[in-house]
Amino acid sequence: MSKYTSALRRAVGLSALVAAAPAFAQSAEGDDILVVGQRDAPIEIAPRGLAVSLGEEQFAGVNAVNTEDLIKYAPDFFVRTRYIGDNNAVPGFRGTHSTQSARSLVMVDGFVVSNFLGNSFAFPPAWGIVSPTEVRQFDIVYGPYSARYPGNSMGGIVNISTRPPDRTEAFGTVQAFVQPYRQYGTRQDFQGYAAEAGFALKPDNSPFGFRASLRRLRNDSQPQQFYQLGYSAGLYGNPSAGPAVTGGYADPALIPIGGKTAVVIGDYASVATRQDQARGQLRFDSGDVHAEALFTYWWNREETLEPQTYLRDAAGNPFYGDASGRASFGGHTYLLNAATSYRLGIAQKDEWLAGLKLEAPLLGFDTRLNLSTLRFDRQRSRQSNGHAAGIAHGAGQLTEQGPTGWYTGDLLATRMVGAHELAIGTNTSLYETDQSVFDTLNWRAATGRTLRTRTFGRTRTIGVFAEDAIGLGASTLLTIGLRADWWRGFDGGLTARATTGAAAGQLVTQRYAARSDSALSPKLAVKRTLGDGWAAELSLALATRFPTVGELFQGSLNGDGTFNVNSFDPNLKAEKSRDANLVLRKRLGPVTMTGSLFYQRIRDAIFSYTGFNAAGVSSSSFKNINVTRQYGAELIAEAKDWPLDGLDVDANAAWLDAVTVRNAGDRASEGVQFPRIPRWRLNGNLRWRLLPALQGVVGVRYASRPNTDLDGLQRGDAYGYTSELFALDVKANVDVAQNLRLSAGVSNLTNDRAWVFHPYPQRTFLVEAGVKL
C-alpha cells in the first residue's frame, strides 16, 4: 500500500471528524455526567474516565450480525472479529493487545461473560449468549477507575443490557449475507443467514414479565489460514529430492521462511459455523423490589472439512503431500508434512449462562445482588492427522474440555447521606478448567483414544470495595474509592505420557503448588461542570490483574516424564497498573466535542512471546515484562440534526503511543511500539434521514499499520501480519410500516484486504428484515 493511499484513507477518516465540528453554535451547560453517545438512557456501569453509551440510534447505523458488531465504531476500541460467527472475538481498549483478553471485563445485564480461563484470542467473551436484536444498550468504560470492578477492568469494561419484557409483543428478524472472496488460489462466494423469533409477555397490572427468543446463525467464512511450504537448508538446492509440483504462490510480501520467499500452497478450509441460541428472561417488579432471572443456552459447531490445495502433481492431480515429506517447486525442494497439512476438523462448544439478580432496600441501603454461572456443557474438537487420514476417517486427535466454566457473585449497597453517595460491596469469582488431549485411531468418531496430556486448575478471587461520591457544591463531584482483592491459584496440574526413561509409556502427573496474592487499589475521580458548556473529569487509579488458569497451569512435561520448567512460568507475578485519564467536554448547541488524555504504566505485564525466562533459558511462553507504558489522546465529535435536519454524525480520532519500556527477557523490545497497537485509529458513522421512511448510513474505520511482533521487526500488509485497516461501510434502512423495517448494506465496500494474522472479511453484502407485532 502506497503512502499516498494511506494518506487518502486517513484524510477520509479525518473528514468525517471535521464534518461534525460546527462553524457557529450556541453554548449550553454541560451535563453532570460525561457520557459519550445516547442521552436518553442512564449508563449501567459506573462512568469513571471516558464512558460511552450506545443505543437504538447508533445500532441503526451498523451492519450487525455478530453482537459485538454493534460497537465497531466506538472510540479507540476494537473487537477482533475475523468473520461472521467468529468464536474468537477479543475486545481491546486503547493500547491493549488483541490477544490480551483478560484485561477486558464484559458483562450481560451485569452477569460476567468474560472468559478468564486464559489470556489470548482463544478465551474471548461469550458474545453469542445474546443476539444483536436482543441488545437494548451497550455501555463501555475505558480503564479501571471505579473501585466497584476487579483488576480485569485494567483495559476497560463492557456491559450489554438486553431488552426487558416490559410489554407484550412478538418479534422476528431474518438476515442473509454473501462474501465474494478472492485470495491466492481460493476463489469462492461464501454465504450464510441468520433467523430469530421470540415473544414477550407483560400482563397489565402484573408484576411479572417474561421474554423468550430462539436464533440460528449459519455461515461459511473465508479460510482463516494458509498452508506454506517448509524450508530445509539441506534440501533447498536439490530440486530432485521431492516430487515436482506446480500451483504454489510465491509471495515476497509474506514473512520469509528460512530467509526465503514464502510459498503459499493451500488454505485451511472455510469455517462452516452453525450457532443456535435459546434465551429466556423472567422479571418481577413491585415497588422498590426487582428480581430477574436469565437463562440462555448457546450451541456452537464449526467444521473445516474442505481444505484446498493449490498444488498439482506432474499428472495434474491435486497434491496434498506424500510419504517423502517433500515437494519440489520452482527448482527448489521444500518440506511438506502430509501428516500435519490439509487437516480436517470439527469443533463443538455448547455453553449456558444462568443468572439471578435481586434489588431491594435493606437497612437503609439500596442493595443489588448478582449471582451467575457460565458453564461449558460440552467443548471438544476433533482433527485429522493430515488430509489422507481425514477423508479416510483415520488417525487424529481429540481435545475435550470439562468441567469448565466460572461462578461469579456481586453485592452492591448504595446510600445517600447528605452530600455523600456511599457505595460498598464485594465481588467474588471462581474459574476452573480441565482439558484433555487424546490421540485417536478414528478422528471423526473419536474412537481408539489414548490420553496424551491433561491440564487442570482453578483460580479464585474475592474483592471488597468502598466508594464515596461527595458533592462539593452544585458543580463538583469528588469520588474516592478503595478496593482490596485476595486471589488464589490452586488445584493446578498436568498429566502427560512419558516417552523415555524408566517411566516410558506411563502417565505422569505433575501438580503445582497453590499460590496466594493480594492487592490494594485506590481510586480517585474529580468531575466538575465549568460553565459555558464546559465539563471536565480527572480520574486516577491503581489496578492489579492476577494471572489466569491458562497462564499458570498449561505447560508440558519432558519426554522422560519430568517437569519441563522452561515451557511456562507457574510463578507469574500479577500485572499492576497506574492509570490517569483527563476528559474535557464542550457542548456547542447540536454538537458535543469530547477530548480525552490518558496514561497507563504497567509493571510485570503478562505477555506470551519468545524470550528468556527467569532461568535465563529462551522459551516461547507467558512471561512478565518489567514495564510497559502507553499514553494518548482522543477526540470525539457528536452532532445531531446538524448541519442538516435528520443528519446525525458520530466520529472519533485517537493517537496513542504504547511501548515496552523495560524487558529483561528480551532487551531488543525495549523502546519499541507494542505489537498490534496502531498509532492512529479513526472511526465515523453518519446516519441521514433522507425521507421519513428512508435512512442512509455511511461508516468508516481506520487503523494505521502496527508492529506484528514484540521487537518491531515484522511490519507488513499480508497474511501473518497485523496490517493497516480501512473499512468503508454503507447501509440503507427502510421503514415499510410502523413495525416492519428492511435493511440492506455492504461492509468493506472498497474491498480492502486487511489482516490480523488471519484475513479480515472482504466485501460483504447483507440484507435484513425485522418485524415487531
From TrEMBL:
Entries under PANTHER family matching the protein: COLICIN I RECEPTOR-RELATED, TONB-DEPENDENT OUTER MEMBRANE RECEPTOR
Membrane topology term reads:
Multi-pass membrane protein
Q: What is this protein called?
A: TonB-dependent receptor
Domain of life, per UniProt, equals Bacteria
Q: Where in the cell is it found?
A: Cell outer membrane
- The protein's predominant localisation is membrane
Matching InterPro entries: Beta-barrel_TonB, Beta-barrel_TonB_sf, Plug_dom, Plug_dom_sf, TonB-dep_rcpt-like
Instruction: State the UniProt keywords alphabetically.
Output: Cell outer membrane, Ion transport, Membrane, Receptor, Signal, TonB box, Transmembrane, Transmembrane beta strand, Transport
Q: Any signal peptide, and if so, which residues?
A: 1-25
Q: Where is the TonB-dependent receptor plug domain?
A: 54-157
Q: Which family does it belong to?
A: Belongs to the TonB-dependent receptor family.
Q: Does the keyword Transmembrane apply?
A: yes
Q: Which residues form the TonB-dependent receptor-like beta-barrel domain?
A: 295-749
